[in-house]
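Tokenised fold entry reproduced for absentees:

. . .
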Amino acid sequence: MEISVSLPPQSTSPTAPAPAPPSPASMGDKRYMILIGLNYMCLFLGSVSSSLLSKFYFNHKGSSRWVSTWVQSAGFPFLLLPIYLPYHLFKCTQRKPFSRFTPKILLLSVMVGFLLGINNLLFSWGNSYLPVSTSSLLLSSQLAFNLILSVIIVKQKTTFSNLNCVVLLTLSSVLLGLQGGGSNTTLQGLNRTKHLIGFFCTLGAGLLFALYLPLMEMIYRKVYCYAMVVEMQLVMEVAATALAFTGMAWDGGFSEMRNESSKVFDLGPRAYWLTVAFNVVTWQLCFLGTAGMIFCTTSLTSGICMTALMAMNVLGGVLVYGDEFGGAKVVSTLLCEWGFCSYVYGIYVNQKKRNEEERAKDKVVNGSQQLQLMEMSA
């Protein structure tokens, strides 16, 4: 899908600045909302499904964290469909794939792809040692990191609701870390050390992903259409897959995968490969939805949308796997939701204030125009 926007004519003045890339919101409101809705649907389905499937893999004696890392980016060939089909098959766009894809954008995409590869590995380690509900709540701390890094990288304005959200989400994560593994950790044979490893790996994954969000917002400001977002996502996933492939080759991950499918996975080879395949698809949906939300809105809004899904991940872990949902986790969830709701309310208040200011300006402009007309008629 391409966002086509007519650019204003450039000034002939040598001192005139180059025109900025068009905002995605400059397209029709209906198409813009449809694009946001489709991307959030991808984010919703991908986030919840991938989290549950990753835990399913480890619960049934899957133990390779390299395999869990690899599946998060190995589905990049699916991105070739939205890149090439609109131009070659459907003929619905005149833009050739990878046009305006400069060497600088290529280099940035590869570097961010390696960052995503490290983030995927940390997520796999954390998810293998923690219940889904715990890891999901810990990952909600990425919103706090996201706010801080957005202020530094893309000059995001701080408000009371922003800071309130940071404090509450930080307290939520600390509470989970002090709680320990609970009964689920004991049943899986995990000691306190492994629980702490999972805790810090998950926090590290949240920090790296929070860095990824404002970095991509800064890069997407130079991107002219949604098609380029998908193309950049393809390059990033290729780089992340190359990193995982290297780790698997160095650590014997491919032979471990064959051994797991035939001898270790307690549901049999067919269930093993289906789990891997569905993991590959759902992770692509998750990352594609995230990239689309950053492009259509901001990195902070994208992080907020992901935080809103954490409650669904927690609920999924409790319903599907019977994760413990004791007092500490209930309080942590309430703190998380309190922080999220306070931030949404802050956005509502600020938007209402801006609308009132715009209406006031319109009244002043209309009044001055009417006064000029009266003077001219007199």
Observations:
- The radius of gyration is 24 Å.
- The chain has a mean pLDDT of 81.
